[in-house]
Design goal:
The chain is an alpha+beta fold. It has 25 helices and 22 strands. A six-stranded mixed beta sheet has the order 15-14-13-12-21-22. A five-stranded mixed barrel has the order 4-5-6-8-7. A five-stranded mixed beta sheet has the order 16-17-18-19-20.
Length: 749
């Protein structure tokens, strides 16, 4: 209605709005509601209808991305199998296959899209469980029994394994083990040699006196189960060689597949020795590890520096190495094809380069000995090159999903391994970053100083983003599995990335290819010089203040939640993806359980006591690897010194008794066959509230409230003990593992 010259009043519900003329062609808005102008922010009132429409738009944006969740569902099915405490019957795996087929058929007849998606993901989850169960049945092999006496082992040397805490190791294919029956002889065995023992070459038949035991159980309840990895690698025994291996003439002939494997490994071992001889042990050990996978010649100090600097991933042949080798070969092949006009006009240059890159990846897989991380990386690279051959985008989330499906179908146990989790989490995060990364316009006729400056800024920003995103994606797994965060890891990786990508890996690839022809010295020297730079960066980062921060492990539910949150952020399109951020960071905000007061190894040979944030080791030189793993999981600092121990315990060669200053009245004896000194056991029982005995003898007259013996550890494995006003609460590792095929070797029956 008119309210004056040049003004209009409009009634809107509870208030009137007046438009006053303020100069020609202009208007000002005022309101009768108080004196506030209408350009102030109005109170937003959520509407269920508006929210529903927005959510519908978000779901509609995922129309072409639901297939990306199929490997996630497949992995959840595999994880459900490995999370069981009891092994299901074999027929269940076969019975689930028709269930999966029925779900897929029902999906084809489904009318509603939501139902179709749910049926598809359910079929993948059921298939994952079935594949994992059938894989466990397929790799079933004999496992050594605990407590075996020394045996003469006659075996083929399959390969030189990575060194362990006790020294160099061999991977053996046993032919005969003492008086063991053929059906009880393990398919593979990992043997630790005494320090200074010469390493036999792969392909040789050896005879060695050794003690064989089943693969070791977890170092502490809930810790990583290395016996599960050994089961799926058909390693049924781990041994300690009591004498140096003797080369013999085997009476039996190895199967053809084993002969082929040993010939390949012999060639790899010969190349490893030539690389070390060419570059020297200082850089040659690391060069050989990244070329052939043999880590036998890497100095221990280098390994510690690389781990502290967050560069330990360089040692293990995995996605980084495959990406560099495949990408370098692909780019070089495209360049050479383009440089030859006659050839470039007659073939498809990109597809031909993809074939060459695929061949390079497969060749590198054979050269590396095909460890599980390299196999997974080769599958991922092969899928990318295959996508190029069929005119699809090589690097995409769909290609990554296909690679993950292939890996899980071939190796469903990979879902439990840190390498698989970190590799695919980092790759998914980087591909998702590539999807949203802005594409700069290419200017025409720009002066070269400006072009160089723009390229440097773009490359620096991309490198920072890649390292930052990859570090965030792998951070939850590094914290939960390894309990260490490298403070300077981001900067160390930024400094090392161009060195490894443009100097080290190309030099190693050319050197390994040309060494059989006597022409590999120059590229190997370039690679050795670049490795020296990497070692220098690692040494600086390891020596920097607060190089490593130890973070205790969160509860078991945290890692799956973090993984799903990270995948949601990578796979979902739109702003709703940020809803996965709190889940991805669950490993940081989840409360940590209280640390235990006492830890005991699986055989009762090592004991540690918590005092504040320190872990005092009663036997500093025994089971040190397991004690350090347990300490890091609980956020403790191990004190592996006799000085720290003697300040709290009175010890002799076979036992320890707590002094009055010790926080726990603990007594332990680790004698098995030798008796303790007269009166020692009685003194232990009289003064201690907790007595730990490695042997199976349980004294009837022991007055201690809690007594644990070898029988308890044979049944329960490693233990964590918590003290309360009601007494001691004991958590056994075997209760957390359940009754599975990879735990049967530890069954006291």
């Amino acid at each position: 209605m008119p309210v004056g010259e040049g003004a209009i009043r409009v009634r809107t519900g509870r208030s009137d709005i007046k438009l006053d003329g303020v100069g020609e062609g202009a208007a000002a808005l005022t309101s009768d509601v108080g004196a506030a102008p209408l350009n102030t922010r109005a109170r937003w009132r959520p509407s269920l209808r508006r929210t529903g429409d927005w959510l519908a738009e978000q779901l509609e944006a995922q129309a072409d991305r639901w297939t990306l969740w199929t490997p996630v569902a497949l992995g959840l099915g595999c994880a459900a199998y490995f999370g069981l405490l009891r092994e299901p019957q074999a027929w269940i795996g076969w019975a689930l296959l028709p269930v999966m087929a029925a779900l897929l058929l029902a999906r084809r007849w489904s009318v509603w899209r939501a139902t179709s998606i749910a049926l598809m993901l359910s079929a993948c989850a059921v298939g994952g469980f079935a594949v994992a169960k059938l894989r466990a049945e397929a790799v079933k092999a004999p496992v050594a029994q605990a407590g075996a006496r020394p045996q003469w082992v006659e075996a083929w040397v399959v390969d030189v394994a990575a060194p362990g805490q006790g020294g160099q190791r061999l991977l053996l294919a046993p032919i005969r083990v003492g008086d063991w029956a053929a059906e009880a002889t393990p398919v593979r065995s990992r043997m630790t040699l005494r320090p200074g023992t010469p390493l036999p070459a792969p392909g040789e038949a050896v005879r060695v006196l050794a003690i064989l035991n089943p693969p070791p159980p977890p170092a502490s309840p809930g810790a990583y189960d290395f016996a599960r990895d050994a089961y799926f690698e058909s390693i049924g025994a781990v041994g300690l060689a009591l004498r140096p291996p003797e080369t013999v003439s085997a009476e039996a002939t190895a199967p053809w597949r084993l002969r082929l494997t040993m010939r390949i490994n012999a060639a790899r071992w010969a190349l490893t020795r030539r690389i070390v001889e060419t570059l020297g042990p200082e850089t040659g050990g690391l060069a050989a590890a990244m070329t052939t996978g043999h880590e036998a010649f890497i100095p221990r100090e280098q390994v510690d520096n690389l781990r502290a600097a967050g560069l330990a991933h360089i040692i293990s042949i995995s996605g980084l190495h495959m990406a560099i080798v495949g990408g370098f070969t692909f780019g070089l092949a495209r360049l050479l094809i383009a440089a030859w006009p006659w050839l470039a006009l007659r073939i498809h240059g990109k597809k031909a380069a993809a074939v060459v890159g695929l061949a390079a990846v497969l060749g590198y897989l054979v050269l590396s000995g095909a460890p599980p991380p390299a196999e997974r990386a080769a599958i991922t690279a092969s899928v990318a090159f295959a996508a190029v051959l069929v005119d699809r985008q090589g690097i995409s989330l769909h290609a990554l999903a296909l690679a993950a499906m292939a890996v899980l179908l071939l190796q469903p146990e990979a879902v439990t391994e840190p390498g698989f989790q970190m590799s695919f989490a980092a790759t998914a995060a980087l591909v998702a970053l590539a999807e949203i990364w802005p594409r700069p316009l290419k200017e025409i006729d720009v002066p070269w100083p400006i072009r160089i400056t723009q390229a440097a800024v773009t490359w620096t920003a991309a490198s920072l983003a890649v390292s930052f995103v990859a570090g965030l994606a792998t951070g939850p797994f590094a914290i939960q599995h390894f309990n260490r965060v490298s403070t300077w890891g981001l900067f160390a990786n930024l400094a090392v990335a161009p060195i490894s990508s443009f100097l080290m890996m190309p030099g190693l690839a050319l050197g390994a290819s040309l060494t059989p022809f006597g022409l590999g010295k120059a590229p190997l020297e370039v690679a050795g010089w670049s490795i020296g730079l990497i070692n220098q960066v690692a040494a600086w980062a390891a020596a920097a203040p607060l190089a490593q921060v130890v973070i205790p492990s969160a509860p078991d539910w945290v890692l799956p939640v973090s993984f799903l949150g990270l995948l949601f952020m990578c796979l979902w399109r739109g702003p709703l993806r940020w809803a996965g951020l709190p889940l991805a960071l669950a490993v940081l905000w989840a409360p940590r359980p209280a640390p235990p007061d006492v830890w005991v190894s699986a055989d009762g040979a090592a004991v540690a006591m918590r005092e504040g944030r320190d872990a005092v080791l009663l036997r500093p030189d025994v089971k040190l690897f397991g004690a350090e793993l347990w300490s890091r999981r609980r956020g403790l600092t191990p004190l592996p010194s006799e000085t720290a121990r003697d300040a709290r315990f009175e010890c002799d060669s076979w036992s320890c008794v707590a002094r009055p200053t010790a926080p726990v009245r603990l007594a332990a004896a680790w004698n098995v066959r030798r008796p303790l000194a007269p009166g020692r056991l009685g003194a232990m029982c009289a003064s201690a509230e907790l007595v730990i005995l490695r042997n199976s003898f349980r004294p009837e007259s022991c007055a201690a409230p809690t007594v644990l013996t070898g029988e308890d550890f044979a049944r329960g494995g490693s233990a964590e003990l918590y003290r309360s006003h009601r007494g001691w609460r004991i958590v056994w590792a075997q209760d957390r593992r359940g009754r599975r095929p990879w735990t049967w070797g530890h069954d006291p029956r």
